[in-house]
């Protein structure tokens, strides 16, 4: 199964909580109220996203006001 790596550039996070609200499977807010990726509740700021979820994660990237969610190249 193919994966892509998603990460959050915390410096650009606007703390809107949108990604954590819309896709809590992969995003949560940290103690500083900035977004971070996670897998199963374990914080991993380079989360491997399975292919079946690429479209929903891409949607969050596209709608992020701070444009802080990216695919790792």
TrEMBL record:
<feature type="domain" description="4Fe-4S ferredoxin-type">
    <location>
        <begin position="4"/>
        <end position="32"/>
    </location>
</feature>
<protein>
    <submittedName>
        <fullName>Ferredoxin</fullName>
    </submittedName>
</protein>
<dbReference type="Pfam" id="PF13459">
    <property type="entry name" value="Fer4_15"/>
</dbReference>
<dbReference type="InterPro" id="IPR052395">
    <property type="entry name" value="ET_Ferredoxin"/>
</dbReference>
<dbReference type="InterPro" id="IPR017896">
    <property type="entry name" value="4Fe4S_Fe-S-bd"/>
</dbReference>
């Amino acid at each position: 199964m193919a994966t892509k790596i998603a990460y959050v550039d915390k410096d650009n996070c606007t703390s809107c909580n949108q990604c954590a609200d819309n896709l809590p499977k992969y995003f949560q807010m940290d103690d500083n109220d900035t977004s971070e990726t996670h897998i199963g509740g374990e914080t991993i700021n380079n989360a491997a996203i399975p292919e079946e979820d690429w479209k929903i994660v891409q949607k969050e990237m596209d709608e992020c006001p701070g444009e802080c969610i990216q695919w790792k190249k």
